[in-house]
Automatic annotation (TrEMBL), chain A:
Family indicated by similarity: Belongs to the binding-protein-dependent transport system permease family. LivHM subfamily.
Name this polypeptide is given: Branched-chain amino acid transport system permease protein
Sequence intervals crossing the membrane: 27-45, 57-78, 90-110, 122-143, 155-173, 203-223, 252-274, 280-299, 306-327, 339-356
A Pfam family that the UniProt record links to this protein: BPD_transp_2
Membrane topology: Multi-pass membrane protein
InterPro entries associated with the record: ABC_transp_permease (IPR001851), BCAA_transport_permease (IPR052157)
Coiled-coil ranges per UniProt: none
Subcellular location: Cell membrane
Keyword annotations: Amino-acid transport, Cell inner membrane, Cell membrane, Membrane, Transmembrane, Transmembrane helix, Transport
Coiled coil is among the record's keywords: no
TrEMBL record, chain B:
Keyword Iron: no
Signal peptide: 1-24
Keyword Zinc found: no
This protein's name: Branched-chain amino acid transport system substrate-binding protein
Family: Belongs to the leucine-binding protein family.
Length: 365, 412
């Protein structure tokens, strides 16, 4: 019995924590404190270094939001498939690459028809539609080959199949399109910058960010409001129960893959609009970033995918300038990924369910 | 007691193994410290080749090995009446792929020497694997200074190269920037690969030695797409020049994003020979016009080079890019010449090549009339003849790529 109890007093929260905690809790607390001190030191150093102006930081943040919105679009594919099948589709990044190439060829076709110049405002939606269609089609193929045969089997086979399909997609694209970097066409009206509160922001960034948000809002509306969305949520909650109440689970899974693939296709086209060059090998690293965003936000949670993507994008864009710069690390941008993945590791240690958590899992619990 | 017996046995075994490893091998008329390769009459002389056959540097790698194929064809496909067979592996442009390709080649005990790889990262992993088995390799694109440095580790002793050491490229670029352009300050960007990092370090050293100031030494990752933060950081230092020998993707992003960063529109950018291809025109787009790179001076190669280009074009249906194919040609030429010098036949017509003798003959190459110029190897394996030039792109039409016109040589 503690002294406090002897004295007839209730033990304090800290004393109670100390009594209940193990050495693991102490180590985790030390890690938290260490990370917090490092972050604060870096932030203080970065802000006082005076290397960048406020406009530079805002510019980085705007770009981070753009990149983050693209990560979010990719993350949605991971999170939707995981939500329904509890499996990760590791070919998803390459679906994005296919969408990007479909958009490239659509733009080429529109250019040949003269539509790219005659109706530039119409061209982008058409190119996006081509990317979405290709992404959805390839994603449906992945579902058919890598997931449907294993629907009622608990194994890692779908995961391995998806990794294999990732290579198949990459090297098929390599055979078809070659390995060279391909230039994406401009859409005329998207060239140049727009003055936002005195800050020149490249129009492609604004278009990509805006388009990503519109698509994300549309998807959330579908999932929340439509009968398909209701069925998807029911299947995610309990596949067997959903089947018992008459939901066609197979069709819901197909629809989920199609929508996820379409989102990846949009991301592929918007990525190309911002960066203006694509390669057949670009899907892997972007896919990993999208996966990280999904984990960060809470895989299985659509809002989490959006939040995770944005947080990851902004952290990558601002982290080196704000934190690493403070430690006078030479060439801090080479360590950009350390910020993003370091943050992911911290989240996994201290909040394994992600920033928003997996809503379905918590409901089940 | 048991422990003592075990230790004694292990020591004895180690001594036997060491003795066996250092024992010279005799086959037919040849005795050689590193072993002898017997090529039975009618069988081919096997040479390995590893270069980038996939990934972002495919064009370069394919050209290099095609150049070697043309050299073999020019030799009538034979050395000492034995047909020459080139076994090709994909080294991409990574350490992992270089290691894999070298391991595959090392598995073939008939291979006398290996041509390649295209990149220093692959050479760093692959060359020691080959040399461990007594197989010398002739670099055709690996330019990092450390590979032929005087204090290089034992594993790299078997590495030679016909492509120039980056120390030459760095000194040439520093001369151009300081003497010709009169620029006093510079920033550098590398991508973490041995080639780019060692080249910018050598450039920085030479530029500072001339009195110049290096205001920023930045690094990006090969997969980075957003270079604005790095460029913003550089812009705060206001350098007159950015020297960045990174590869096609990165140059594409850099050149497209450079003008979006305030303060960099007048900053000159000089790239490296890794982007000496038509693809960089597509990657960079309209901003390629006026972009300078430092690269081999193909129009100062030997007078045989134009005829080689014609043969190459006729054989493969497309012209070679830059000078990479010529390095492949010269690597094969140097190797075949050395084989010819040391190989011996027996009464039955079988051919024998001593590995150490072959390596010594390759290292002793002097005044060999190569395609890039006259090849002569120094004590550390640098055999290159090529000189450097500054090239400037004149058009953003990818179909117009033709060294001499687009890009055109502007210095010397």
């Amino acid at each position: 019995m503690s002294e406090a109890m002897h004295a007839g007093r209730e033990p304090g929260a800290f004393a109670e924590w100390r009594r209940r905690s193990t050495w693991v809790d102490h180590v985790l607390l030390a890690i938290r404190a260490g990370v917090a001190v490092l972050l604060l030191t870096g932030l203080a150093g970065g802000l006082t270094a005076g290397t960048y102006s406020l406009a530079d930081f805002v510019s980085f943040a705007v770009f981070g939001l753009t990149m983050g919105s693209l990560y979010a679009l990719i993350a949605l594919g991971y999170t939707m498939v995981y939500g329904i099948l509890r499996m990760i589709n590791f070919a998803h990044g390459d679906v994005m690459m296919v969408g990007s190439f479909a958009g490239l060829f659509a733009a080429g076709g529109l250019n040949d028809l003269g539509l790219l110049r005659a109706a530039p405002l119409l061209a982008l939606p058409l190119v996006l539609a081509a990317g979405m269609a290709a992404g959805a089609a390839v994603s449906l193929g992945i579902e058919r080959v890598a997931y449907r045969p294993f629907l009622h089997v608990r194994s890692l086979a779908p995961l391995i199949c998806a990794i294999g399909l990732s290579f198949v997609l990459q090297y098929t694209a390599r055979g078809l399109f070659g390995t060279r970097n391909r230039a994406y066409p401009g859409f005329g009206w998207m060239e140049g910058t727009l003055d936002l509160f005195g800050l020149p922001v490249p129009i492609p960034q604004l278009v990509a960010f805006g388009a990503a948000l519109v698509v994300l809002a549309g998807l959330l509306a579908v999932v929340r409001l439509s009968p398909l969305g209701k069925a998807m949520r029911a299947v995610a909650e309990d596949r067997d129960a959903a089947a018992l109440v008459g939901i066609d689970v197979g069709r819901v899974i197909v629809a989920t893959f199609a929508i996820g693939g379409a989102m990846a296709g949009v991301a592929g086209v918007l990525y190309a609009v911002v960066f203006k060059q694509i390669t057949v090998f670009m899907g892997f690293s972007l896919g990993i970033k999208g996966f990280a965003a999904a984990i960060l936000g809470g895989i299985g949670n659509l809002g989490g995918a959006l939040l995770g993507g944005l947080v990851l994008g902004v952290a990558e864009a601002l982290g080196p300038a704000l934190v690493l710069e403070g430690f006078h690390i030479p060439a801090p941008y080479q360590l950009k990924d350390v910020i993003g993945y370091g943050m992911l590791v911290m989240i996994l240690i201290f909040r394994p369910q992600g920033l928003l958590g997996e809503r379905l899992a918590s409901k089940r619990a | 007691m048991l422990k003592r017996i075990f230790v004694s046995a292990a020591t004895l075994a180690a001594v036997f193994l060491a003795a066996a490893g250092s024992r010279a091998e005799t086959l037919g008329p040849v005795t050689d410290a590193l072993g002898v390769v017997k090529i039975a009459k009618g069988q081919p002389i096997v040479i390995g080749g590893y270069a980038s056959q996939s990934g972002g540097d495919t064009n370069q790698g394919i050209d290099e090995l095609r150049g070697a194929e043309v050299a073999i064809k020019d030799a009538g496909g034979k050395v000492l009446d034995f047909p020459v067979k080139l076994i090709e592996e994909d080294a991409q442009c990574t350490a992992e792929a270089g290691q894999t390709a070298a391991t595959k080649l090392a598995g073939n005990k008939q291979i006398l020497a290996v041509l390649g790889p295209s990149c220093s990262s692959g050479a760093r992993a692959g060359a020691p694997i080959l040399w461990k088995l007594g197989v010398p390799s002739v670099g055709i694109g690996a330019t990092a200074p450390a590979l032929t440095a005087a204090d290089r580790p034992e594993g790299f002793q078997g590495f030679l190269r016909v492509v120039p050491n980056d120390l030459k490229s760095a000194a040439f670029t520093a001369d151009y920037v300081w003497d010709k352009l009169g620029l006093k300050s510079a920033a550098t960007i590398h991508d973490g690969s041995p080639y780019t990092e060692q080249l910018v370090r050598a450039f920085e050293k030479d530029f500072i030695a001339k009195g110049g100031t290096v205001l920023a030494s930045e690094a990006v990752s090969p997969t980075d797409t957003d270079l604005r933060p790095v460029l913003t950081r550089i812009a705060t230092k206001k350098p007159a020049l950015i020297f960045t020998p990174v590869f096609t993707s990165t140059i594409g992003f850099l050149m497209r994003q450079k003008d979006e960063v305030p303060g960099l529109s007048d900053t000159k950018v000089i790239g490296g020979e890794g982007v000496f291809s038509a693809n960089v025109i597509e990657a960079v787009g309209p901003k390629i016009v006026g972009f300078n790179i430092v690269g081999p001076s193909t129009d100062l190669f030997s007078p045989r080079f134009p005829a080689f280009v014609k043969t190459f074009t006729a054989d493969y249906g497309e012209a070679p890019i830059g000078g990479f194919s010529a390095y492949g040609y010269d690597a094969a030429l140097l190797t075949m010449t050395a084989i010819k010098a040391v190989a011996q036949t027996d009464a039955d017509g079988n051919l024998y090549v001593g590995r150490k003798a072959l390596y010594d003959a390759m290292m002793a190459s002097k005044d060999l009339p190569g395609l890039t110029g006259t090849l002569s190897c120094d004590a550390h394996g640098d055999c290159a003849a090529a000189t450097y030039a500054i090239w400037e792109f004149t058009s953003d039409d990818t179909a117009s790529f033709a060294p001499g016109t687009n890009p055109k040589r502007i210095y010397p």
